[in-house]
Every structure is written in C-alpha cells, then in structure tokens.
Amino acid sequence: MQRIPMGVEVKIEQYIEAALGADWKQAQMPRMRDEILKLKKRYWNFSGTSYGMWPTLAYLAYHFPAYYCQMRNVYSNLLSCGIIKEKMRILEVGAGTGAPARAFADFLPEVIQAEYDALEPYDDSVKAMKFILDGANPLCKFNFIEKPIEQFTPTAKYDLILMANVASELRNPEEAISKLMENFIAPGGSLVVVEPAELRISTQLREMQRAFHKKYTVFAPCTYLWGPRCEGRCWSFVQVPDIAPTKLQREISNGEKALMNVDIKYSHFILRKGGAPLKKFRGNPRMDARMMDMERHVERRINLTCAKMSGNLSENTNLFKICDGSARHEHYAVLNPRDVSESNRGLIDAEYGEILRFRNVLVLESKKENAYNLVIGKNTEVERLEKPRLKRKFEDEDGEDF
Q1: pLDDT digits (tens, 9 = 90+) for 107-139
Q2: Do the beta carbons of residue 275 and residue 188 sit within 8 Å?
Q3: pLDDT tens-digit readout, 8-63
Q4: What is the domain-level CATH number for residue 256?
C-alpha cells in the first residue's frame, strides 16, 4: 500500500507541534477534529477555502498525505509522456502548504534539475510550505512568491505550469488559464489543471476543457477519435489505490472514518500551444460505430473503439465510463463478474485513458439516466490497442512500491 515517506510525515507533526505546543494531542485534539470537519463542510457546501493557522494545520493533518501521493501519480504520468525534461522551469499557481511541491522534489529523478516558482498569497500557507520543503531535493530550487496570480509577472517563461485544486476557486478560471497560456508558457510547454473528482467540480472542469478546444491542443487525457465533438455531462476521473493513513491521522480519527482521508480520485487536463495530442488514434467508420450516433444502434451488437475514462464505478459489477470524444450522452461499459473471460478482461486491466476496441458489444439505452450501457458478454472481445508506458516506481520507507 502506498504512503507518504516517513520523513514528510515527521515534518507535518513537527510543524503542528511547533504551532500548538508539545502537548497539543492532549490539549487540542478535539479542536483539531472540529477544524477538519469544518474544512470538509466548507468543501461539500462549496463555500471556498478558509485560511489562517487552524485551517492550515487541519489541512496538513487531513489533506496533505493523500494530496502528496496524488501528485506523485500525476508527475509519474507527466514523466512517461515526455513533459518532465532534464532541465525545466515550473510555476505552481496556488501552492498552498506545499504538497505538490514536496511531491515533485521527492519524485524528481537524479538526472533532472528544476527551478520551481511556488506562487501562494496566504502567509500561513507559505510558512507551512517553507517548513515542509526545507531540506528537500537540492536538484529542485524553490522560489516562494507571496502574490496572487493577478499581481505576478514572470521574469521568464515556464516549461510546466501547475494549477492543482485552484481553478475551481477562481472567479474566472478560463480567463486566468488563457492569461497563463498566452504570457507564461515557454515553447513546447504544458499547463496542467488538476481538480477533485467530486461530481460538480469534475464536470465543471471538463466544461472548462471544452472551452479551449479551438484555441489550444488538449494534450490529455481525452482522445477524440472523430474530432472534438463531445457534449453533455462528463464525469471522468483517475482513481488509484488507497494510501495508508499516517500515524497522526489514526490518532486524530480514533477509528472515525469521517476524519480519515486515504482515497485518491482526481480529474485533470493538459493544455499545450500547438502540436499533437498524446493519443493520435482516429476512428475508422468502416469498422467502428460513433458514440454520437449511438441512438441508431440500441439493442444491436456493434464494434467500437474508445478510451476507458474511469475506475470501476460499481461495487457489484464492473462498470466503467468510456468515451470516443464524440458522445452527446454518457456511455458506460458493463461487464458482469460471471462473464469475465480472457477475451474481455482487457476492460478491467486497462489503465485510465487507455484506448480499447470492443467487438460484439450489445448497446442498451438507459432513458432514466440519459445514458447508454454497452454490455460486454463472454464472447465480446476487448483489445488493448496501446503499448504500456513505463511509469516511475517508488520505494517507500515501509518497503512497499508506490
């Protein structure tokens, strides 16, 4: 099971102890629990992020570990598709308490050198970030810039711009992203937007992505086999295995699940100025049905090429969101556990965003959900069309791979 490195876990506890005193677990534990619950309530009520000493400490205890591991997964994907290079300049907009920055420093392969500008306007967050990053990888030079994005003018352009859990809190995220793309990105650079997988935020993220189709290259995660024509609600997210809770989280939660944060689910997109998208697949109308025409194929068996765009969405069966970039309604691949076979288990084994070809799949319409279910039977063939990309493996201090 993946976990944050012990050294980072110790840093978090040291910072909280320095702020509250050595006996805080006896004197202040009820307050810490209350502050974590307040953070969660604001999140689910879409009330924005609160700032100050206590919200910062609660964030470190509750959110930081999962956020750190999430970003290592993001960086591993960026490395495997060539975005992380030997020398690079990085800007993080809204760097918070430093989870993405520390994850990047710990992730960085020894052959890579980076200059990392951490842009964060709130003093309590910056203090925590500086402490968390102190003594991190010397190959990554950190610059702390205590300004909002509206007041920041770069001295040079960036190879990578990161907005992690920030876009949904901006008044006009599309305007901010356009400004970054036009003025801050170096030739061949990329802008990565990462947001929580929560339904409202995730679907808004995909609407935002669509707004940039005509202006920039959507490098990932979507594949447009028939051109960028998708419409309607799109709830698509990466899901990776749960992390091990920190010692501090176990102490704070005392077994209460509401105070534990161990699951990792996130939505994202990557923009570039020009160039080709990561996946260059194109549909063949002689071989494949298009999702935009799916109403023609209800209760028929078809062949289809598409991308797998979620983890398993059901506890009782195998249910995955799929898309070919042309859908007007949501499409799901359904594989009953009793029907899993060697010919179709590629659906289960495939990674997020991987391109699959279905042969002999039954189309059913769910009018209640305004969606289509593509039912995969024992005789359905699911072919994985991509060669697997090498990803960075991590050895955490408990001896288990990340």
Answers
A1: 988 889 999 999 999 999 999 999 999 999 999
A2: yes
A3: 999 999 999 999 999 999 999 999 999 999 998 887 776 667 788 999 999 999 99
A4: 3.40.50.150
Give the helix/strand (H/E) hosting 311: none
Q: What is the mean pLDDT of the chain?
A: 92
Q: Does 156 share its domain with 257?
A: yes
Cβ-contact 320, 347 below 8 angstroms: yes
Query: Does 209 map to a domain?
Result: no
Determine, yes or no, domain membership for 59. Answer: yes
What pLDDT is attached to residue 50?
Answer: 72
In the 8-state DSSP scheme, what is residue 339? G
Q: Give the span between the Cα atoms of 168 and 49, in whole angstroms.
A: 11
Q: How confident is the model at residue 228 (pLDDT cuts 50, 70, 90)?
A: confident
Shared domain for 263 and 134, answered yes or no, is yes
64-80 and 6-20 are packed helices; what angle lies between their axes, rounded to 10 degrees?
A: 140
Residue 401 falls inside a structural domain? no
Kindly report whether the peptide bond that precedes residue 221 is cis, defined as omega within 30 degrees of 0: yes
Find the CATH number of the domain harbouring 367.
Answer: 2.40.50.140
The pLDDT of residue 398 is above 60 = no
Q: How many domains does the chain have?
A: 2
Give residue 352's domain range.
291-384
| Same domain flag for 253 and 327 | no
> Is pLDDT at 346 greater than 90 in this prediction?
yes
Q: 119: helix, coil or strand? A: strand
Residue type, 305: T
Taking phi first (over 0 means left), then psi (-120 to 50 degrees means alpha), and beta for anything else, what does residue 271 get? beta
Q: What is the pLDDT of residues 51-109, one digit of tens each?
A: 889 999 999 999 999 999 999 999 999 999 999 999 999 999 999 999 999 999 999 88
Q: Which among 99, 138, 139 has a CA at the least distance from the CA of 118?
A: 99
Residues 351 and 255 in one domain: no
User: Does 366 lie in the same domain as 261?
Assistant: no
Q: Which of 80, 54, 43, 18 is nearest to 389 (CA)?
A: 80
Whole-number Å distance between alpha carbons of 361 and 339: 13
Element (H, E) at 167: none
Cα–Cα distance, 61 to 67 (Å, whole number): 11
- Rounded to the nearest angstrom, the gap between the alpha carbon of residue 317 and the centroid of all alpha carbons in its chain is 24
Are both 339 and 253 inside the same structural domain?
Answer: no
